[in-house]
Amino acid sequence: MAEDAKPNPHQGKMAPAWLAEMRKSRINGHHVSRPNGFYVNYQKFAAVHVARGDDILVVTFDNLSAVNDESLEREAWGDKFFAENSWSSLGIISFDANWYRDDTLFDYLEGLRDQGFFAAYKRVVFTGTSMGGYAACAFCGLAPGATVISYSPQSTLKKDLVPWEKRFNRGRQQDWSGRYADSAALTASAEKVYLCYDPYEQGDKTHAQRYSGDNIVHLHSNYVGHKTVVFLRRAGILKSVTGMCISGDMTEAIFNDLYRSRRKLPWYYMGLIDMAMERGHLGLAERIIKTASSASGNPNLSSSLQKRRDLFLDKNKKSKK
Q1: pLDDT per residue over 290-299, tens digit each?
Q2: Distances in Å between the alpha carbon of 74 and those of 2, 62, 93?
Q3: Does 281 share its domain with 149?
Q4: Residue 131 and residue 135: Cα distance in Å, rounded?
């Protein structure tokens, strides 16, 4: 190394999988006449496109938990699963908790539309969770006829539209004037809009109720709070849910059948007993405790739930003193 050469802080780190994939010279066994993908970087976001054929394009938006990830290995939300299925992807990687309220992003996505980028695919899917779920609904009109899979979305954080929303302080501070401000008003052109959320999480339920139309499908992920995607992944059904939504085969009844696997997860029972205690249903809490171990196959679960119940009661007593 030359004496004046500076050490490379990224030396020895792995490149992201999408970069290696872009460098391939073939798609589906055929030489391609256009790039295998691209990476475009702006101040508050980046766009990563990996071309894997012209059939399906999945457009994804990061959630809040990813915005501070500065690693070189960072991948677009869900892209590993899309690669496994040979679906092309466009991942919007966010560097800021701004709920995608960015005119530069608006112009960029509209530019892709005007260039015919979305129209080149037989089916376009927009997806994301929470902050990303808002974006999936807000931008789906860029590809009329698209499918939307939105997990625990906020319809908007514009204060005069949702004055009851007190969560997401950073998002509520953004400029909600101008384009794409209310995603509930922007889904009419979509073929299907799947909203997956916990109807017992009042904030998420109220956002979901703002969407209307024959194309809206409500998928109820009960007793998991705002962490719908995390729960579905732990239950081992996230890939099935996503795949069936993309194919257009998902229905409320099918989702409910898949969702029954939640009964094997301790998290489901924790959420259930929390709801019972918060609403003062002590008898229901007792029945949950008695049946949880046998229903889940976890011999220690009932005792864990009893401790959780007792802790709740103890905190409640102290707060009343």
Answers
A1: 888 887 788 8
A2: 31, 11, 9
A3: no
A4: 7
